[in-house]
Automatic annotation (TrEMBL):
<dbReference type="InterPro" id="IPR050261">
    <property type="entry name" value="FrsA_esterase"/>
</dbReference>
<dbReference type="InterPro" id="IPR029058">
    <property type="entry name" value="AB_hydrolase_fold"/>
</dbReference>
<keyword id="KW-0732">Signal</keyword>
<dbReference type="GO" id="GO:0016787">
    <property type="term" value="F:hydrolase activity"/>
</dbReference>
<protein>
    <submittedName>
        <fullName>Dienelactone hydrolase</fullName>
    </submittedName>
</protein>
<feature type="signal peptide">
    <location>
        <begin position="1"/>
        <end position="24"/>
    </location>
</feature>
<keyword id="KW-0378">Hydrolase</keyword>
């Protein structure tokens, strides 16, 4: 997509693999609420990103982590994972990020609490997460543009734990899964994990019934789940018969726990692509679409702001301009209408006559 044009071109050039960039991609996005009795009438917050074709795309079910502070859960939203979801959509999947109960606008409070630190109970918490993921799968199975046959699942941190737990009770159609820095229970101090032995035992329990091929990726400088613990989790899982390939990734930034991020995709997508290729799940990688044309006779400051707009990775967004060179933009809005309204308001602080130049990743049409 245009907003990733510069960085994704670098990504494509870095993949010395069998994949060849395909035609420029266009992508469809949709905000969803996942029906679930336990989530009440509101359902679970979700966001879908897929190629803009007319066929049914296999589901890539994406699961988020858990912040250390409970208060931070309310600030999370599915749009925040757009850049991650886009990487799966570029690879031919219908990527769905679902906010589990108690995160973002999904109701549920502390339903997935692990309890006190010393005796943190990871199996019941994982069971809650798996129920939420299964509700999302059931909802996607009824869509005309998504298929759960040949689907994959991927998760980060607590979402990695949830993904591993899902493979222990695999839904029909799940053929592969990926866990990035999987685990839970990390506290504020580096590599301080609540009931570490209980976490190891939870992974060992999942390994007794999990037979779905998995990829596990941990950076060697992960400050949540360090190399020694990561190996213990893997050993416990494999001892029970779990089917997983372990990757010890090079250090990433100041904390390798955040390797699985938009900024880190140059490092983690090669692992993903190799795994998909090994499983016979590789698709052509859609390259970014042609970039939006730059602003014409505008100031250098306006052009710099438009470059920032293009690089913004949180939909929905819009960029407004005025005939006298004024401009304004906003991103991360709940709806396109919100983004249009707020960007026009920002522009009108400088000029009474503003129009929309771009909305999300396309030039604005006539209004």
């Amino acid at each position: 997509m245009a907003l990733f044009h510069r960085l994704l071109v670098l990504l494509i050039g870095s993949l010395a693999m069998a994949f060849t960039p395909a035609r420029a991609g266009q992508f469809y996005t949709e905000d969803l609420r996942i029906p679930m009795a336990e989530a009440g009438p509101q359902g679970l917050e979700a966001f879908l990103v897929r190629p803009a074709g007319t066929k049914r795309y296999p589901l890539a079910l994406l699961s988020h982590g858990t912040p250390r502070s409970f208060a931070d859960r309310a600030t999370m939203n599915a749009h925040g994972y757009y850049g991650i979801a886009l990487e799966y959509a570029r690879r031919g999947f219908a990527a769905l990020i679902v906010m589990r109960r108690g995160y973002g606008t999904s109701p549920g409070g502390r339903v997935d609490s692990v309890g006190g630190c010393a005796n943190a109970a990871y199996l019941p918490a994982a069971a809650v997460a798996v129920a939420d993921l299964r509700a999302a799968i059931d909802a996607m199975a009824h869509r005309a543009d998504v298929t759960t046959t040949g689907m994959i699942a991927a998760g980060h941190s607590a979402g990695g734990l949830a993904t591993v737990a899902l493979t222990a009770q695999p839904p029909a159609g799940l053929v592969a899964a990926i866990s990035f820095a999987g685990g839970r229970g990390s506290r504020d101090e580096d590599e301080d994990v609540c009931n570490e032995e209980g976490l190891v035992q939870a992974f060992a329990s999942f390994g007794k019934t999990s037979r779905i091929p998995m990829l596990w990726v941990y950076a060697t400088n992960d400050l949540y789940f360090g190399p020694d613990l990561a190996r213990r989790l893997y050993a416990g899982f494999r001892a029970g018969g779990g089917n997983a390939k372990f990757v010890s990734a090079p250090p990433y930034g100041d904390d390798g726990h955040y390797l699985y991020s938009v900024a880190g995709r140059l490092q983690w997508t090669p692992y993903l692509d190799a795994f998909l290729r090994e499983r016979g799940l590789a698709h052509d990688i859609l390259s970014p679409p042609d970039p939006l044309p730059p602003l014409g006779h505008f100031s250098d400051a306006a052009k710099a702001e438009f470059a920032r707009y293009l690089a913004s990775t949180t939909p929905h967004k819009a960029f407004a301009v005025s005939p006298n060179g004024g401009y304004g933009w906003r991103s991360g809005r709940t709806t396109v209408d919100d983004a249009e309204r707020d960007s026009l308001a920002a522009c009108m602080k400088w000029s009474p006559a503003c129009t929309l130049y771009a909305v999300d990743d396309q030039l604005s049409g006539p209004r």
